[in-house]
Amino acid sequence: MFRRILIANRGEIAVRVIRAAAEMGLQTVAVYSDADRLALHTRLADFAYPIGPPPARDSYLNVDAILEAARMSGAEAIHPGYGFLAENPDFALRVAQAGLVFIGPPPDAIRDMGLKTRARQIMKAAGVPVTPGTESGISDQQEARRVAGEIGYPVLIKAAAGGGGKGMRVVHDPAELAASMEAAQREAASAFGDPEVYLEKYLEGPRHIEVQVLADTHGHCVHVNERECSIQRRHQKVIEEAPSPVITPELRRRLGEAAVAAARACGYVNAGTVEFLLDRHRDFYFMEMNTRLQVEHPVTEMTTGLDLVKEQIRIAAGEPLSFTQDEVRINGHAVECRVYAEDPLNNFFPSTGRIKYLHPPAGPGIRNDSGIFEGGEVTVHYDPLLSKLVAWGADRGQALERMKRALREYHITGVRSNIPFLLLVMEHPAFASGDFDTHFIADHFDPETLARGPEELKVVAAVAAALAQKNGFQKPLPEAAGDNRFCPDSPWLLAGRRENLR
Ligand code: MV4
Q1: Is 410 a member of any domain?
Q2: Structural domain that includes position 164
Q3: pLDDT tens digits, 383-402
Q4: Which of 151, 235, 436 is the best mutation target for the ligand 1 pocket, counting ligand atoms within 8 Å of the beta carbon and taking the most?
Q5: % of the chain at pLDDT higher than 70
Q6: Residues 181 and 261 grouped into a single domain
């Protein structure tokens, strides 16, 4: 086992990795940009090295600075977290060339799964179901027209170097094909530096189901169940849960076997995720393989009892998996909300600023993986994720009740957050019933309606005004609604009490 590892990341995931390493008795090395001198990960690690100015390309993407910090600190391995360098095969290679261990998959697996057409070739050859479509890039209009005719409309144009929805175009009619293909190629070229696109049959209203796999260096590979990730907004996941409300034990076994076959087919080692689309007939198709620890890994941890980061570190250190497929269980249900610094009343525009007041939720069944603190700043430089709020329950109903309770407890001022929006989703009958697909948010939440704000807010504002009038304005009003630290009889606080709203 390693003695010391470096975490090439920031925010909640750097904190998450530091905690796993600390529990294993390992020393931790943080790297930080000038913007993160006082950040949580910088303070929690045993050692911390500055790696450059705030923009990620000058710091968290600066391979030379990170490798130099590893050398100076005496770290033996590097955990990349997610984002930044996590799925960069050249970084994984550089780490190995520096005589260090990359806590992640082999560079070839990262490269192969990063090329979506190559991934489809490998999966098809391994007998993993893929959506009807092409396994190589398409360059000219004639070929596109011919292939789309064979597959049958609607078809989806995807970027070969892509993923995450960029460069994607749905085509319903042959007349739209040429223009859509040019647009997709342009978008792919600017987003990925590669204009290559390919075609797939477009599945309407699929669910996004992904399977977590773990593979060691001794040839063992297991799956540790699925996550339901259909609740997303513009290809950004918002709510994830485990298990999926629609997966039966029989379907879970088949999905799991397909995921393990996918991992084996690309020579996978370490933790990875195989994403599938599930159609209305409960048929599933390989979509992508993510060669990193995922943001939503906690819902798997809460329902299996595993610590996926510790498993990653043990695998990287050459240890065999300590359990077999038969020993994997599901205990209860877990749901995760991604709490973002964005304004649901303003088309989810990112919200930056200093966090003036923070009261994170806690209590039975609640886990809040967070990288923020009171006095900390949310900047334009990094991802606007504030924290990942996870609720566990003996069943889905209890997990959802706990999540709603925790969202109502969660107070943050200084930046806007999507917490009110998350509550609206939690309270939606279609979400509660489990009957939803990847279009859920687009279908049920109109940005203009959201921008008008909830009706209750108007009632709360009217009651607050009346109470302020009645009590007189003896106390200075807090600077923002909800900031009641120094104003226990704030009209906002009083108006929020049920008895005053009756
Ligand atoms: C699809 C699809 C329907 N049919 N592929 C979106 C992100 C990228 N990873 C692939 N995506 C999709 N691929 C076929 N053949 C629908 C989507 C899709 C989607 C997938 C997962 C989660 C949310 C989504 C929202 C819209 C479209």
Answers
A1: yes
A2: 132-201
A3: 999 999 999 999 999 999 99
A4: 235
A5: 94
A6: no
